[in-house]
User: Which sequence fits this backbone?
C-alpha cells in the first residue's frame, strides 16, 4: 500500500462531498431532507456533509433487506457469496491507501494505525469469504431407520450498529461474517464517522451484491439505531459501543426477542509482576493504553504493578510517555492523534478532574493541548495517575481516552482480586517470566480476551468478546460466523411406512 500523505488542506478541499445512504441498491437522501457536518477532529473543520437518516429511512432499509433475504439471497450459493466477499477484499486492496487516509481524516487516528485497520479489514473479508464454503453441519448416528443431521442457516435480516473508534474495521467485523453466512444487513456507522463505510458500500455496489442485500443507513443512534434495535422485522442486532447503549439496545430488542450480540466497554487490567521483562512490559503498557488515543474497548486502562517494581516502572513509563508525539494523524511523525470529538474530549477531561479530586496523583499529562497547530483539534496529553484506590471512578469507569490508572499489588492473589474488581470483563494481560504463574493468573482473570507478555494483538481467526458487563456473544473466527446462523435439526425417516402407534 502506498503510504504518502498529501497535505491535509488539499484533502479537505477535495472532500466537499455530500455522502448518501445506500438503501435497496440506490444512493438516497434522508426522508427528512436533513444533513450533518462531518468533522476532522484534528482541526474541527468540516470535511464532508452526510445526509441524515431517520427512523423512516431505517424502516425502508429493513424492508429492503427482508425482501432481498426471502427473494434472492437465501438461495444464493455459498460459493457466490464467497466470490463477492473476495471481490470486496480485492477492491479494498486496490483502494487501500485512500481508505487509510479517509479513516485518519475522519477519525483522527495516526495514519500507521489506519493502515493497519485497512489490512485487518481486507483479511477479515478474505477470512469470511473462505469460511463461507467450509463445512458447517454435523450428522448424528441415531437408531435406524432415522437419519439426523444439523445444518446452519442464516438468521435473516441483521441490524448492525458500530461506533467511531474503528469505523472501517468494525464494519468488516460485522458485515463480512453476516454476509458470508447468508444474511442481509442494515448497517449503521456512528454519526461521527460515516466516511469509510460509505466508501465500503461503493465497493459493495461495484462488485454486484444483489439489490437490498446490503443497506447503509446514516444518522443518529437515538433514531436510526433505536429503530434497528426495536424493529420486529430485524432478526438479529449486533452492536459494538458503550455498555449503557448496549443495555438500551437489549431493552429495545425485547419486542420480537431478536438475537442480540453486544461488544461493550471495558476497564481491562494489565498485570505486571516483578520478574517480567522490564522493557517489554513498559513498552506494552504504553501501547495498551495510548494506541488509538485510548479509545479502544480492550485498552489496558488499569496497570497493576507489583509493589517492588512500582517506582522504577513508573519512572520508565513517564520517561517514554514524554517522547510520544501527539499531532494530526496525517502527519507521519504523529504517534497519537486527537480524540474523536469536542464532546468526547470534554468527557475525558472531566474524568481527569475527577481523578484529581478523588485524590489520585497525576504524574504525567492531564491537559488538553492548546498550542500551535493543535489548538483547534481535540488533543489530550497522554495521562498517567498513580496512588489510586480501587473504589475511585477513574479505576472503575471506562474513560475511553488516553488516561492510565495505576494500581499496586503485593501478591498473586491480590493481583487477581484487583484485576477482576470491576463490572467489566473484556480483556486482560499478564507480564511475567514464570510460565506457570502466567497461566495461573490468566485462567483466573474473568475476561474474554487475554494476553501473556503482550497487549492488543487481535486476529480475525480468534473469538472477540467479553465476560460480565462487557458483552454478549463473540465476534470473529468461527464463533463469529456461527453467531450469524440458526441451527436446524433435520431428521429423515429411511423407512417410509406407518408406525402403528394408535393401532
Ligand atoms: P455509543 O455506544 O453511544 O455509540 C455506539 C453506536 O451506537 C453508534 O453508532 C451510536 O450512534 C449508536 N447508538 C447510540 N445510541 C443508540 C441507541 N439508543 N440505540 C441504538 N444505537 C445507538 O458510544 P458513544 O459514541 O456515545 O460513546 C459513549 C461511550 O461509550 C464512550 O465514551 C465509551 O466509554 C464507550 N464506547 C465504547 C466502545 C467500545 O468499543 N467498547 C466504542 C464507542 C464508545 P451515533 O454515534 O450515531 O449516535
Assistant:
Amino acid at each position: 500500500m502506498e503510504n504518502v500523505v498529501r497535505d491535509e488542506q488539499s484533502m479537505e478541499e477535495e472532500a466537499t462531498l455530500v455522502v448518501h445512504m445506500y438503501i435497496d441498491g440506490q444512493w438516497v437522501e434522508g426522508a427528512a431532507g436533513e444533513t450533518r457536518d462531518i468533522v476532522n477532529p484534528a482541526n474541527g473543520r468540516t470535511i464532508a456533509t452526510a445526509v441524515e437518516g431517520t427512523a423512516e429511512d431505517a424502516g425502508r432499509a429493513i424492508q429492503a433487506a427482508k425482501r432481498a433475504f426471502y427473494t434472492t439471497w437465501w438461495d444464493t450459493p455459498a460459493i457466490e457469496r464467497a466470490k463477492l466477499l473476495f471481490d470486496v477484499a480485492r477492491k479494498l486492496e486496490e483502494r487501500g491507501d485512500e481508505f487509510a487516509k479517509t479513516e485518519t481524516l475522519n477519525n483522527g487516528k495516526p495514519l500507521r494505525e489506519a493502515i493497519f485497520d485497512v489490512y485487518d479489514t481486507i483479511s477479515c473479508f478474505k477470512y469470511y469469504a473462505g469460511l463461507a464454503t467450509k463445512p458447517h453441519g454435523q450428522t448424528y448416528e441415531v437408531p435406524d431407520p432415522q437419519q439426523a443431521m444439523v445444518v446452519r442457516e442464516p438468521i435473516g435480516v441483521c441490524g448492525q450498529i458500530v461506533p467511531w473508534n474503528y469505523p472501517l474495521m468494525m464494519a468488516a467485523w460485522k458485515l463480512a461474517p453476516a454476509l458470508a453466512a447468508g444474511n442481509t444487513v442494515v448497517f449503521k456507522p456512528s454519526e461521527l464517522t460515516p466516511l469509510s463505510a460509505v466508501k465500503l458500500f461503493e465497493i459493495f455496489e461495484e462488485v454486484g451484491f444483489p439489490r437490498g442485500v446490503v443497506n447503509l443507513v446514516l444518522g443518529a443512534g437515538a433514531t436510526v439505531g433505536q429503530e434497528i434495535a426495536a424493529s420486529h422485522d430485524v432478526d438479529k442486532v449486533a452492536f459494538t459501543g458503550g455498555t449503557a447503549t448496549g443495555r438500551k439496545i437489549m431493552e429495545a430488542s425485547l419486542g420480537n426477542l431478536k438475537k442480540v450480540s453486544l461488544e461493550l466497554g471495558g476497564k481491562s487490567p494489565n498485570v505486571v509482576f516483578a520478574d517480567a521483562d522490564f522493557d517489554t512490559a513498559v513498552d506494552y503498557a504504553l501501547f495498551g493504553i495510548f494506541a488509538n488515543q485510548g479509545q479502544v474497548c480492550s485498552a489496558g486502562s488499569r496497570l497493576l504493578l507489583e509493589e517492588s517494581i512500582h517506582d522504577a516502572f513508573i519512572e520508565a513509563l513517564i520517561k517514554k510517555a514524554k517522547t510520544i508525539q501527539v499531532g494530526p494523524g496525517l502527519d507521519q511523525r504523529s504517534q497519537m492523534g486527537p480524540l474523536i470529538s469536542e464532546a468526547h474530549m470534554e468527557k475525558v477531561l472531566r474524568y481527569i478532574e475527577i481523578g484529581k479530586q478523588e485524590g489520585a496523583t497525576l504524574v504525567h499529562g492531564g491537559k488538553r493541548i492548546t498550542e500551535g497547530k493543535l489548538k483547534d483539534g481535540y488533543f489530550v496529553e497522554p495521562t498517567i495517575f498513580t496512588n489510586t484506590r480501587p473504589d475511585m471512578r477513574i479505576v472503575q469507569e471506562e474513560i475511553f481516552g488516553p488516561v492510565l490508572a495505576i494500581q499496586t499489588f503485593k501478591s498473586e492473589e491480590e493481583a487477581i482480586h484487583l484485576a477482576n474488581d470491576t463490572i467489566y470483563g473484556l480483556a486482560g494481560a499478564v507480564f511475567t517470566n514464570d510460565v506457570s504463574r502466567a497461566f495461573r493468573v490468566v485462567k483466573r482473570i474473568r475476561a474474554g480476551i487475554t494476553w501473556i507478555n503482550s497487549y492488543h494483538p487481535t486476529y480475525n481467526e480468534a473469538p472477540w468478546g467479553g465476560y460480565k458487563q462487557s458483552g454478549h456473544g463473540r465476534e470473529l473466527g468461527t464463533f463469529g460466523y456461527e453467531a450469524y446462523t440458526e441451527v436446524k435439526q433435520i431428521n429423515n425417516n429411511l423407512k417410509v411406512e406407518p408406525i402403528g402407534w394408535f393401532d
